[in-house]
């Protein structure tokens, strides 16, 4: 039976912390799993991870009793179908900017009558041996996260979080700031006000609010928890990989 812990945490708006996989090697989720993340997301939007390795990454994550999500390349029927058939526990869908976008994400993930996803047999369905079990799990427990990373999404946040089947949202700060003309700059009034609007509406509706913290900074993470975020992506594999040696070498060079 597939893991439903993350789905339950989202339903109850309980804290879950995950991280981002950008390097297509199974050693990466094996290493990150030792940190006891609740979930790990394989990012195929901005990274050249070979499609043939995605199912291996998913199975490696799941073997550690961690939920395996995929941040897909776009809100596309075939893309979402491929990663769900590969056995993903759910998807993070970029650029969900309207209710229509949110409805498409749900439809592309779920089978009829809830959605419109084509039915096939692959790893997710036990290569045909447990289709009925998978079908029941999919309709009840697959995770769908809408990524809020454009000012249009901010302006339609109420409709997006009201869409049946959407389990949570996650703010993508880089693209959100870019949509306001200041890529990577988050301290402008426009970006601060946009994020506040999303926070306010999600809190008012007791809806799971997420954020991708890019730097591996514990203080930022703790502040987001204080601010009421419950679905938090904490840095990336390359962020963790680079931060410690940079810090250590800086200390060594400054003391030698």
Our measurement of the CA-to-CA distance between the termini, rounded to an integer number of angstroms, reads 55 Å
Strands in their spatial order, largest beta sheet: 1-2-3-4-5-6-7-8
What would you call the shape?
globular
- Radius of gyration, in Å, reads 18 Å
Average the pLDDT over all residues and give the rounded result.
Answer: 96
Structural class estimated from helices and strands: alpha/beta
Please write the string of helix (H) and strand (E) elements. HEHEHEHEHHEHHEHHEHEH
* Secondary structure: helix percent: 40-55%
Biggest pleated sheet: 8 strands, parallel, barrel
CATH topology label: TIM Barrel
Number of domains: 1
Structural notes for this entry:
It is a single chain. The protein has 256 residues and is of the alpha/beta class. It has a single domain (5-255), classed as Phosphoenolpyruvate-binding domains (TIM Barrel), CATH 3.20.20. It has helices spanning 5-11, 27-33, 51-63, 77-85, 99-109, 131-141, 151-155, 157-161, 173-179, 189-204, 218-226, 237-255; strands at residues 16-21, 39-43, 67-71, 90-93, 143-148, 168-171, 209-213, 231-236. Helix 4 links the parallel strand 3 (67-71) and strand 4. Helix 4 (77-85) runs parallel beside helix 5 (99-109).
